[in-house]
Every structure is written in structure tokens, then in C-alpha cells.
Amino acid sequence: MAADDRVHLDVALEVDGESIRGTVSDGVAPAVEFSGWLELMSVFELARSKAKSKAC
Q: Is the pTM of this model over 0.70?
């Protein structure tokens, strides 16, 4: 894996029992809020697709 294939994300989690919420930031764009595991995975996928489009 090349260094430009990597994405660094800062994740802030708030855990309440079995549910989670928080923010994800790449340090450039404003942080994205999420609520629940599926939204967290969607935020990760969005970051991955943005990084992939920058590499092309």
C-alpha cells in the first residue's frame, strides 16, 4: 500500500450502552457527525471514496 492510498481520520466516539455517536474528521473538511454503527461505516466509506477520487 502506497502512502497516498492511506486516509488519516480522527474519530471521536460517545458510547451510550450499545449505541454510539460522534464525529469523524480528516483534518481538512469540517467534521462529519454520525449516529450508530451504520452511519459510522457510511462516513468511512465517504472518506475512502473521496481519497480514491483525489488519487485519480
A: yes
